[in-house]
Description:
Elements lengths: L1 E2 L1 E5 L6 H12 L2 E4 H9 L3 H7 L2 H15 L5 E4 L4 H4 L6 E7 L2 H7 L2 H5 L7 H18 L2 E4 L4 H13 L2 E2 L1
Helix pairs in contact: 1-9, 2-4, 3-4
The site of shikimate-3-phosphate has 10 residues, from loops.
Amino acid sequence: xxxxxxxxxxxxxxxxxxxxxxxxxxxxxxxxxxxxxxxxxxxxxxxxxxxxxxxxxxxxxxxxxxxxxxxxxxxxxxxxxxxxxxxxxxxxxxxxxxxxxxxxxxxxxxxxxxxxxxxxxxxxxxxxxxxxxxxxxxxxxxxxxxxxxxxxxxxxxxxxxxxxxxxx
Length: 168
Ligand code: S3P
């Protein structure tokens, strides 16, 4: 199997963006982040899109964005936590699940980081969302990595796995 792109999935705050930037550098690939692309195209923040146009509209933007990004090749693509749930990801993608426990995520997300994420306002609701989503993340993943420790501890596990595969 030859993959076009590496797509990182996982719950909010699991570290997809930070991992993606390092991974792209190590593998000499371009890095793109779905949320950042949407914000740039819409000229406003994800929180503002949720507030003004609603979640359904945001989900349609995500699908459009991931479709457009996966037309190209050779990228590391960090997705928002809802992409695997609401969007279809090209089957030519090598999908890596950045798997962190909910407690670890809670510790990582400070007040500022939570404010950017409308679905993390309420920790109890976020936990319910986490529980409801993890099976889908696992099923969709080509490969899962334990991301409960700091990135330098596990990044080589992803790099080694990918170097063994053919990614354009
Ligand atoms: C969401 C995750 C967020 C962002 C939006 C919705 C979700 O991205 O796309 O707030 O449904 O899990 P991160 O996973 O980068 O926080």
